[in-house]
């Protein structure tokens, strides 16, 4: 008898867009059946600054997805981003008394690792298991059934500002749905674009959105470092608007259609037509001028990424290189620019998910990752805390937010 079809919904709240997906799981196959991306006007650098505008964008995205999918969405997974996101490694120990490791022992060791002091204005968002140690044997992915005297877990704990998470939950509730779970953006993106080999060999997932650049570093199959840089594609758009004296909306279109992050690669420069602010006059400017603006800001962003990779202490372990995703990863020439600046191999990460072709772009990486997280949750055997999801465990306060109506 076949397994029952299950529906999943996901929402990615970004600075420039709010994306929503609906997917079905049928016999372990995940397929997107509805997708929408709406302009975001109430978010700045990953933080909600206008709840009414954010709620309107969420509602618009949900209505379109529900129409395509043919069912009403009542709850959804959601991303969280912003430079309030902080992560650190922690260890927890569970005595075994020379017996086999049971599921409760694994859960207990992870709970022990979570027993750290964090500021009162912050809360644990995710716990990401790295490896386990049974007695003197380290590097164990799944210790279940192994015998020993002592079990130690090594985990990566991600915390965030309580107020930021509360505002996300409130916006979803005002949109008529409940937040099922919350995952930081770069981990969600990684779930849809990284291969197991890349995570094992060592790689950095760099999600360049409109307002932030979210980084996750993997080695030996697990997350080792996460960080957020408060700069993204919007800064490039703003520079174009100022430099060419054109509206922001037109600057964004020029960036997408005509811009190039490595202008020295272009053999035919030429000119482009741009609108001006406040009137309908059209001006002619050199395409070289446009691309020099893009090049300067792109290199600044890449230098900040390189600085973060160096600060993590893991730069020399990135054998599989850099995987770029997010909306800004679609800009022409960014792979060449990143390889030149970061001195590592670079590729664009496309979501590996079935269904609607429109979602197989870097801009939908986080949303696609959310549904894959939910779909694959029951297949993993690494419990983390008391959450029903074995990937991670939200804090007790955050669990309450998911069940309360604001």
Quickly describe the structure.
With about 400 residues, the chain is an alpha/beta fold. It is built from eleven helices and 19 strands.
Description:
With about 400 residues, the chain is α/β, with parallel strands linked by helices. The protein has a domain at about 85-160: Dna Ligase, domain 1 (2-Layer Sandwich). It has eleven helices and 19 strands. It has a six-stranded mixed sheet, sandwiched between helices. The chain starts with 5 loop residues before the first strand and ends with a helix.
Counting H and I runs of at least 4 residues, what is the number of helices? 11
Helix content: 25-40%
Give the strand order of the largest sheet, numbering strands 1, 2, ... along the chain. Answer: 11-6-1-2-3-19
| Topology as a string of helices (H) and strands (E) | EEEEEHEEHEEEHEHHEEEHHEEHEHEEHH
User: What's the story with the biggest beta sheet?
Assistant: 6 strands, mixed
- N-to-C span: 41 Å
Total strands: the figure is 19
What would you call the shape? globular
Mean pLDDT: 87
Radius of gyration: 22 Å
Q: What's the architecture of the domain at 87-161 in CATH terms?
A: 2-Layer Sandwich
